Amino acid sequence: MEILFYIFGVVAIVAALSVVFQRTPVYSALSLIVVLAALAVIYLLLGAPFIAMVQVIVYAGAIMVLFVLVIMLLNAGHEGPSAHRAKFARWVGPPLLLAFLVEFGVIVWKQYGLTGAASAPALDASPAAIGRLLFKSYILPFEVTSILILVAVLGAVVLAKKQL
Amino acid sequence: MIPLSHILLLSVILFTLGAAGFIIRRNVITVFMCIELMLNAVNLAFIAFARRLPGLDGQLFVFFVIVVAAAEAAVGLAIIVALYRNRNSLAIDDVDSMKL
Amino acid sequence: MATFSDTEFFLIETVIKIALIMFILLTAIAYLTWLERKVIAHIQSRWGPYLVGPHGLLQPLADGLKFMFKEDIAPLEADPVVYWLAPFLAFLMAFLSIAVIPFGESFTLAGHVIQLQITDLNVGLLFVFAVTSLGVYSVALAGWSSNSKYPLLGGLRSSAQMISYEVSLSLGVIGVLMIAGTLSLREIVNQQAGLWAHAGLFSVLPRWNLFLQPLGFLIYFTAAIAETNRIPFDLPEGETELVAGFHTEYSSFKFAIFFMSEYANMVTVSAIATLLFFGGWLGPSFGPYWLRVILPVLWFCLKLFCFLFFYIWVRGTLPRFRYDQLMAFGWKFLLPLGLLNILVTSFVMAWLHS
Amino acid sequence: METLLLLMLLPPLAGAALNGIFGRRFSQGLVSAIGCGSAGLAAVFAILAALTSHLGPDSPPFVHSYFTWIEAGSFRADFALYYDRLTLIMTLVVTVIGFLIHMYSRGYMEHEGGYYRFFCYLNLFLFMMLVLVTAASYPVMFVGWEGVGLCSYVLIGFYFPKKSASDAGKKAFIVTRIGDAGFTVGAALLFWTFGSVNFPELFPRVAALGLGDQQRALTAACLLLFLGAVGKSAQLPLYVWLPDAMEGPTPVSALIHAATMVTAGVYMVARSNVLFVHAPEALKTVSAVGCITAFFAATIALCQNDLKRMLAYSTISQLGYMFAGCGVAVFSSGIFHLMTHACFKALLFLAAGSVMHAMSGELDMRIMGGLRRKLPITFWTFLVATLAISGVPGLAGFFSKDDILAAAYNGPLGAPWLYWLLTVTAGLTAFYMFRGLFMTFCGKSRVPHDLEHHVHESSSKMTVPLMILAVFSVVAGYVGIPKVLGGSEAFDRFLEPVFGGSQGLLAANGVVAQHPASDLVLMIGSLTAAGLGILIAYWFYLRSPEIPEGLATAFSGAYRTLVNKYYVDEFYNWLIVHPLVVGSRKFLWQFVDVGVVDGAVNGSAEATADVGQVLRRIQSGNIRSYAAWVLLGAVGWLGYLLLR
């Protein structure tokens, strides 16, 4: 089973690289869907089947469809050369990213070691268990999120109207 | 079992790639997708910790992140569409002033 | 007989099951096309395929050969990767969901219990929905990558349509899920075993969820038709306005793959309907051991066939919706109805439990 | 009785409210009916109160508390009224003269703007003045005190579009304010020392003390109260506002700045006689200030060419007399003079107003003359008043002034120098009053031709009050005929219940005049002075008008000093106003406001702008750069966590 993690981990990384370095937004989007799917598999491996499914249904199945739709609608092609160049981001960005990666790696290594097993007793992550937690302890955040969704829907409708 | 550090490293790599995309890419939609990538990296870390602790709360956090991401995508994409309609451009560098 | 370890046995078992199911499914799909043509022909008072083989029974084979050997034409301006990827994505998504569908009980072979199902996921239904939702991409990307206006419109339409009806699709089954309390398809079927007790005249009826969730079933099945882009909801490929919708520019084998995916999807949603509302493989079971293994599969196939026939029947009978009617129907009728169903179900359940 | 007092107080207040709120829409007739009617009602009720009070020689003053006004800790101030014989006289003076001036104003203000406004203020003034004189505690008195100050301010500045008028109003307000501060502190000191500011409690407590007890506190409190009186009654050195107050309409000058308000200081000192006699040093200050003011103002009045200003200085001078009378602890003589003075000074002002009316607002005596024939009633009434103020025997002023002169020599705290100075002042008074009379009404007409034909006698609305006041100016003195002339000093005895205690205290402690002299001798002295003044005036201004000019040239320095009122205004300007203005401009405005306040505000704004100029480079609007900044922060924080 561990081997699956590494396989899908590598898939995720490669697809993420593709997300970043593809010049065509559609390829980026497709790569991102691959990342999401790979992560969903990893979630399954990590004992979160419900979240894995939600990830695919909501993220891959709904959110990314929106992205693809918008890309198709706006016919977003290759990136042209930028009129403004973000000099700061251009020159400082890459070394910063590298430093960030290294620093975080060191922190993870210091904190958890490289091979320490994430051992834990088996967890009941069934939809029923999640539902119980969600509708008991997390009922308020849940309701707040519903309102957030409602507001977002209204906002999207207003924004997408012909006359802004 | 999969070592926690490996999962976290995967998470960090994905996050860094997302950040890199944010900084490198010039297309608004791609940048937006890179944000989603970063969110997912964080989600992975949540799941990993939820497994280590153990507890379902981490998974619930991921659930909420996904929901919020959905809302964010709806509004964000609507903004992008409005933006494109007004400026006829998807280059993020063109969006550097509040006025049209 | 060599002895296998559990893992080896699992692998071998799974591979065999996958191969078997793939073969059966592909054949079934091929003959589904024949069936469709025949049934529609009879509905329309004509013969249908008749020349190739007896009663045109070899027609699917001929069609398959024709598709395989035709020249593969791709538009010049098409996006090469995505254009190529889209049909296979459709195929993949259509066949992935079969993996969690149980089609019979288990039997024992050489001391191993073999389930008549590729894998029993405890979130099986969610998996089906997840995969179905990914099916949108094939249509959308096919439409986009063709770089042609009719396919693009078809792709956009289908994306919107499939996302919209996916919601109703999920809401339709939630009533069943609430009654069952599980997402495992096998579990849901097992709960429908037996007849209705203490139901007077109705006690001859099987304990199918249909009788508890008629509204849920209607919603589910309506949404399922739309989800599979079938008439009367086949707007993405409506030939009167969009030539052939998203697959206008596809030819030969790629076209065949789209075609097969569509029928595979029909099979999938019909199977889910059977499992959730019609007791799956459950039915009269008798005779020796082998018969008791085979009979449930037969019952399952029979029920599935009824659904498929119904699909074809609908296609031969109903006219196509207009696009705005379609969206209005989905969002303003099916969705509220689904919510109402959930509300009523939950109230009744709460009342019964108290 | 308490109802009567209220009935006396309320009509003016109601009239002021009515006219103030609705007057704009009322006709002139209605406005004047309300104004004069309320004043008349007040006068009627004042008379009724006087008649029904039945204050016997030994009966205590009538006190009634209407409601609790302020209560804080042990401090308690009721809205209480106090009615004794002093109050009786004051209310009569205020209401009757006030009523007459109201009547007169009907005619005088006929053609002026703001008719309703004027009557509103006038009524309000009357109310406040009545509150002042009937108050049973210093706080309530202070209400009236400030109220009349306010009315005085608005009435002086009645013609506020005129800069000199609004300036005069402000000047009056600010200068009297200095005195008011003294009043307030004095009252607070009294509360601190004796635990009460209510007359019915305070006066007995002080009266119970022997002479010399609580000397310092009492002296300080009395001096502070007297400071208030100095401000209100225009004594040295705070008199400067009163001449300028002549900017107001003439009835206002008559009512407020001659007959009533300015006498509030005198009234207050007399009311506080119990306190003052326990502080002889303060009393001596009172008499000295009054005496010097009387002489000083009289000398200025000698050379004034503006009729009303001359009368204003005359008022200051006469107020000085009253203070001198009170200061020598013969309070009744001060009040007596207050009463008679109210009559003839009001008359003088009203007559001056009549002249002004005839002369189309002109008041310079140098272009008058010979108005006697054209304004007969005005002339005769003015003459009566002039005779009265000059102390010609048989008229009101003679009795009251003589009373004061006698007291200045023979009073318990009297001193010869007071008498002599006041006598000289009496002569000066006679001189300048007749100078005014002659220059205005006698001799040849110097009226410019374009005004000549316009000059006419005022209407009966104005002349009737003049005549009534003229009668008062004659007869008012007969209530206090001195013993030396065979009288019984009825007025003094009438006020015996009020002042008797104080005088008894002084007498008991042996405080008496050092060199008593015969009243008759003193009277002859004063008569001589007055006669001389009149004769010289006659000689200078009717017989040989060239002499004053000769004198003016001969003693040009002294003349200019007098014409310019001893340069006091200039001195104050130089000492206080100019430094204040310059200091405000240079320091407060140009340094503190422009430099510090504006500098801080502008500086912070500029600093913000400068910082913004630098920081705006970061605000490129480029979201990728922002992301890079965020990343920089994250890297920095992680680095800190690592190296910690």
What does this structure look like?
The complex is a heterotetramer of chains A (164), B (100), C (354) and D (644). Chain A is built from 6 helices and no strands. With 164 residues, chain A is mainly α. Chain A has 2 domains: 1-79, NADH-ubiquinone/plastoquinone oxidoreductase chain 6, subunit NuoJ (Four Helix Bundle (Hemerythrin (Met), subunit A)), CATH 1.20.120; 126-164. In chain A, helix 1 runs antiparallel to helix 2 (25-45) and helix 2 (25-45) runs antiparallel to helix 3 (49-74). Chain A is globular. Chain B starts with a helix and ends in a 13-residue tail after the last helix. Chain C contains 11 helices and 2 strands; from the N terminus they run H-H-H-E-E-H-H-H-H-H-H-H-H. In chain C, strands 1-2 form a two-stranded antiparallel sheet. In chain C, helix 3 packs parallel to helix 9 (252-277), helix 5 packs parallel to helix 11 (323-353) and helix 9 packs across helix 10. The model of chain C has no long low-confidence stretch (mean pLDDT 82). Chain D has 644 residues and is mostly helical. Chain D contains 27 helices and 2 strands. Chain D has helices at residues 2-22, 28-52, 85-108, 115-134, 138-156, 163-194, 199-207, 215-232, 241-244, 250-259, 264-271, 273-277, 280-302, 307-327, 331-358, 376-390, 396-410, 416-441, 449-452, 460-475, 490-494, 496-508, 519-543, 546-554, 556-563, 568-615, 623-643, and strands at residues 62-72, 75-83. Chain D has a two-stranded antiparallel sheet. Chains in contact: A-B, A-C, A-D, B-D.
What fraction of residues of chain B sit in β-strands?
Answer: under 5%
- List low-confidence stretches of chain C: none
Distance between the amino and carboxyl termini of chain C:
57 Å
CATH topology of chain B: Helix Hairpins
Give me the secondary-structure category of chain B.
Answer: mainly alpha
**Overall number of strands of chain C:** 2
Q: What is the total domain count of chain B?
A: 1
What percent of the residues of chain C sit in helical stretches (DSSP H or I)? 55-70%
